[in-house]
Write a structure and sequence with these properties.
The complex is a heterodimer of chains A (490) and B (488). By secondary structure, chain A is α/β, with parallel strands linked by helices. Helices cover 37% and strands 12% of the residues of chain A. Chain A is built from 16 helices and eleven strands. Chain B has three domains: 4-303, no CATH class; 309-421, no CATH class; 429-487, Arc Repressor Mutant, subunit A (Orthogonal Bundle), CATH 1.10.10.410. Helices cover 39% and strands 18% of the residues of chain B. Chain B is built from 15 helices and 16 strands. In chain B, the strands form four sheets. In chain B, strands 1, 2, 6, 7, 10, 11, 12, 13 and 14 form a nine-stranded mixed β-sheet that branches. In chain B, a hairpin with a 2-residue loop joins strand 1 and strand 2. The chains are: A alpha/beta (490), B alpha+beta (488). The interface between A and B is large, with 44 and 30 residues.
């Protein structure tokens, strides 16, 4: 059975087509693995009955030659930020206790329409706020990777930590993630998996619990660039229910995987060579440059001068939007309610009990930066900087086709190692937030192991709606790196 | 502004001027809410018209309803206002149980409609222009019901998310009469445009009044806002009370503090709504779920081309084309339906005579029966026929009143009634002469008295002849013949 869980989606599709195994067999293999590795705490809710029913339906379609979906019969996990009809949806928070939506998010609807099979709902940082998956009310997720000769539990990154851990540990063929400041790319880098944050507006946000509406974007997390390409083709598309979703055609992203990047111009932003950048990360980055050069790409140094403002800008805009988006969790209509003597007291008690420390911190920061007297100095200034950061990229993309950077400043760290220092934690996003602020697509591809045997990732950033270039170049990185490592025991 | 002496209020220390600005919340006529597909009908079962968006369920997103945008633009054009081709929706953040998202989607710095004007028709017949500052679109909140349970409040979200236009005036009004005239005129324009039904008793038009006082010529004083006054009469009363209250405070050496107040019509006073400590910081910021609203000029032009004739233009036309007095024109154009009724009745008839009949007879009847013009038991065509009969001398005005009563009673047409009852006016000079001769012969003594100088007896003779002809003698003809014969 374990061979089944090691297949990529592309390979599994071939196997299904050739009737080497059924979707039900594939699904059962994953359900067994999920049960076996519950210690990782990757799933908040497992939906085995649903999974088997969906797999059986896929097999029936296959038998009738009606398996037309891009992911027909492939079992995947869903980040528990996506609303799923009749299935508990928690956003990793106590405040959504018992919340079972009566509706299905557009992205998951698209996936089911393409025949994907739902294994369950994956753990995440509370309301997607975190870089280590330690802020979840449902407990931290454990990274399946371990340092050489060490038993220290490592974080899988966040906020899509459950998704990354599940994909890495072969508890799902792929998973949905969402990325507001790096929440797909950073956990992918920490777990040796591949994930893309598409262009803002590529995937519908309808039915995804909102963190920061102008930055949130759903994307696939999988074990190969090709799998991400397949899954993004299935997930994406214009949705009239999301006013910020963009009406552009969704290409068959697999067709972009030509392997040919001759003449492509790759930008290396000098501002990303931070003081104190770990030598191992710097070395990996240099390797990436060498691989692309060897494949015929042209390398150019570029400047993104406002990079240093990206983190502070992000940590004003994201909390500002979050403070407003999270106002609806008030105990009145759904989820947790802690009764009080007055309406205000009910709000206070409910939100005190329902939100964790990090969520409260961001709600307070966001409320502060939007307050009368501070709005201009913080929120408005951050919006201006955001425009400048976006302009940096627009200027750079006049001369280049894609940007290559590290995904993260370090490999996965130990549980609890950064949780006392929010600023250190926020630094995890230093290479990824600019992409969200500019609304661009960014992909993280596993590119090597550090000296302790932990995976590291490289990030590619593209022009708006040019995910195809990211997939094409990403696959070149993937092949050059020849990353075949699997966490021990999985 | 030049001649405001008539509006001044006398205080102990001299005369005071009241300065008024109005904010009207007008519910947009549309089948669906501003950002969700839910229905908007008034009076439905609680929480029966609520979508997941209205109830702010996780992951739900707003999508603008184009009809509401069209209505806002239409209203802006009706107020002679600038239409902003780019406007932005903002979130106004505050917690309340009937505000499910914890924020109201509104427009703050960039509203859809900018500066405009409105012309007030004042009770003394004069007219006055008042500036419109802006009009913006926003969502209504739900309703909290505090009287359904001893210790709990119930929430009805039917209204949550319904589109409102907030229409803000400049502080250009100087008396409660002007404020009342503003509301009447605004309501009239909204109804003409079909953008708001203007029913204040159903809450589809609500008014906040900003009141301040000053000595004439001084800068503006500190204002207080009186929230949610729900009838034009109460608006006038609230202004009177609030102006008095402010004058007394200042004359007693105090100062006015800027605050929000509520008008209590039962006690005839305004009182503070919330203290300063509870004042909200709404933390407005652009709603990231919505892109800026961009309109094409052609969209605006299309709406402009389809605008109906509005009260001011109609007024002018009625005066010019029909020779009506300003007063009559004003009365007839106040409601679109009345104007339409009048125009239909007056088609091919004497417009002034028709106006008189609509204003005095028909309105009198409708008032008595508590009906509106659309519920009139006599149709415009029927009234037109009646006026036609007067105009062509078939019946006299006096007989017409009798016919009018019979029309009301039987539902029959005026010509039918005239035929049936034989009310056709006698215009045959021979018949009139005969009747006059007969009466004069029977009253030789009075004829002598008349000729001796007792002019007043003329009316007596008229009455007698009319009686003899069953009221059908043409009055003008009768007068003329009688005068001749008496002089003869």
């Amino acid at each position: 059975m374990s061979e089944l869980t090691h297949l990529t989606m592309a390979a599994a599709l071939e196997g299904l087509k050739a009737k080497k195994f059924s979707s039900r067999e594939l699904t059962d293999a994953y359900l067994a693995a999920m049960e076996k590795h519950r210690d990782l705490n990757a799933y908040i809710t497992e939906t085995p009955d649903k999974a088997r029913a969906m797999a059986d339906a896929a097999d029936q379609r296959r038998a009738k030659s009606e398996a037309n979906g891009l992911m027909d019969g492939l079992p995947i996990g869903i980040k528990d930020l996506f609303c799923t009809d009749g299935v508990l949806t928690t956003a990793g928070s106590h405040i959504l206790d018992g919340f079972k939506p009566t509706y299905e998010s557009t992205v998951t609807t698209n996936l089911w329409r393409h025949g994907a099979v739902m294994l369950g709902k994956l753990n995440l940082d509370e309301f997607a706020m975190g870089s280590s998956n330690e802020t979840s009310y449902h407990g931290p997720v454990i990274n399946p990777w371990k340092r050489k000769n060490s038993d220290v539990k490592l974080v899988p990154g966040g906020s899509s930590g459950g998704s990354a851990a599940a994909v890495a540990a072969r508890l799902a063929m792929a998973a949905t993630g969402t990325d507001t400041g790096g929440s797909i790319r950073q956990p992918c880098a920490f777990t040796g998996t591949t994930g893309i944050k598409p262009t803002y507006g590529r995937c519908s946000r309808w039915g995804i619990v909102a963190f920061a509406s102008s930055l949130d974007q759903a994307g696939p997390m999988a074990r190969s660039v090709e799998d991400c390409a397949i899954m993004l083709s299935a997930m994406a598309g214009h949705d009239p229910k999301d006013s910020t979703s963009v009406d552009v055609a969704v290409p068959d992203f697999r067709k972009a995987l030509t392997g040919d990047i001759r003449g492509l111009k790759v930008g290396i932003p000098k501002e990303y060579r931070l003081d104190g950048l770990s030598p191992e990360i710097a070395k990996l980055w240099d390797e990436g440059v060498a691989w692309l050069k060897a494949a015929g790409a042209e390398i150019k140094e570029i400047s993104l001068p406002h990079t240093k403002y990206a983190l502070p800008t992000y940590y004003i805009i994201a909390p500002a939007e979050a403070s407003s988006n999270l106002a609806r969790y008030d105990g009145v209509r759904f989820g947790l309610r802690v009764p009080g003597k007055t309406l205000d007291e009910m709000y206070e008690l409910t939100r005190e009990a329902g939100f964790g420390k990090e969520v409260k911190r961001r709600v307070m920061i966001g409320t502060y930066v939007l307050s009368a007297g501070y709005y201009d100095a913080y929120y408005l200034k951050a919006q201006r900087l955001r425009a400048l950061i976006a302009r940096d990229f627009t200027e750079a993309f006049k001369d280049i086709d894609v940007v290559l950077t590290p995904s993260t400043p370090s490999a996965a760290f130990g549980a609890g190692e950064q949780s006392d220092d929010p600023i250190a934690m926020y630094l995890n996003d230093v290479f990824t937030v600019t992409v969200n602020l500019a609304g661009l697509p960014g992909i993280s591809v596993p590119a090597g192991l550090d000296s302790q045997g932990l995976p590291l990732g490289l990030q590619l950033i593209g022009r708006a709606f040019d995910e195809e270039t990211l997939f094409r170049v990403g696959q070149v990185v993937e092949k050059s790196a020849n990353f075949t490592a699997v966490p021990a025991g999985y | 502004m030049s001649d405001n002496t008539k509006n001044l209020i006398e205080g102990r220390t001299g005369m005071w001027e009241v300065v008024l600005g109005l904010e009207v919340h007008a519910q947009v006529i549309s089948k669906a809410k501003l950002f969700s597909g839910a229905a908007t009908a008034f009076g439905a079962e609680p929480n029966s018209q609520v979508s997941l968006v209205d109830a702010a369920f996780p992951g739900m997103l707003p999508v603008i309803n184009e009809i509401c945008v069209e209505q806002a633009v239409r209203t802006g054009l009706g107020l002679n206002a600038e239409i902003n081709l780019k406007s932005v929706f903002d979130r106004k953040n505050y917690f309340y149980a009937d505000l499910p998202a914890g924020y109201q989607i509104s427009q703050y710095t960039q509203p859809i409609v900018g500066k405009g004007t409105i012309i007030l028709d004042l009770p003394d017949g004069s007219r006055r222009e008042v500036g419109i500052t802006r009009l913006h679109l926003e969502q209504d909140a739900g309703k909290s019901l505090h009287d359904q349970h001893p210790s709990k409040s119930y929430i009805d979200l039917n209204r949550a998310g319904v589109a409102l236009m907030e229409i803000v005036s400049e502080p250009d009004m100087r008396s409660s009469d002007e404020a009342a005239a503003y509301l009447k005129k605004l309501r009239s324009i909204l109804r003409y445009l079909g953008t708001c039904d203007g029913n204040m008793d159903e809450g589809s038009m609500r008014c906040d009044v900003n009141v301040s006082v000053r000595k004439p010529g001084d800068p503006y004083g500190t204002r207080c806002e009186i929230k949610n006054v729900n009838s034009i009469r109460y608006v006038a009363q609230a202004i009177e009370h609030e102006a008095r209250r402010q004058i007394e405070i200042i004359e007693d050496g105090g100062t006015i503090k800027q605050e929000t107040r509520l008008y209590d019509p039962n006690r005839g006073e305004t009182r503070p709504m919330r203290s300063k400590e509870e004042a909200h910081d709404y933390r407005y910021f652009p709603d990231p779920d919505l892109l800026p609203l961009i309109l094409e000029q052609s969209f605006v032009d299309g709406i402009k081309a389809g605008l109906p004739e509005l009260p001011d233009a109609k007024h002018e036309r009625f005066v010019k084309e029909f020779g009506l007095s300003d007063y009559d024109a004003g009365v007839l154009v106040a409601e679109r339906e009345t104007a339409a009724f009048y125009e239909q009745a007056a088609k091919g008839r004497d417009p002034k005579l028709t106006a008189n009949w609509v204003i005095s007879e028909l309105f009198g009847l409708l008032n008595k029966e508590g009906k509106t013009i659309t519920e009139s038991p006599i149709s415009a065509a029927q009234l037109g026929e009646l006026v036609g009969l007067i105009q062509d001398n078939t019946i006299s005005g006096r007989i017409a009143k009798e016919v009018f009563a019979a029309m009301l009673e039987t539902g029959k047409s005026a010509p039918a009634i005239v035929e049936e009852k034989g009310l056709r006016q006698v215009t045959d000079t021979g018949a009139i002469d005969a009747a006059i001769d007969d009466i004069l012969a029977k009253n030789a003594d009075k004829v002598a008295e008349y000729r001796g100088g007792k002019d007043k007896l003329f009316g007596f003779f008229v009455g007698q002849v009319m009686k003899a002809t069953g009221g059908k003698a043409n009055p003008a003809m009768l007068n003329e013949r009688l005068k001749a014969k008496l002089q003869g």
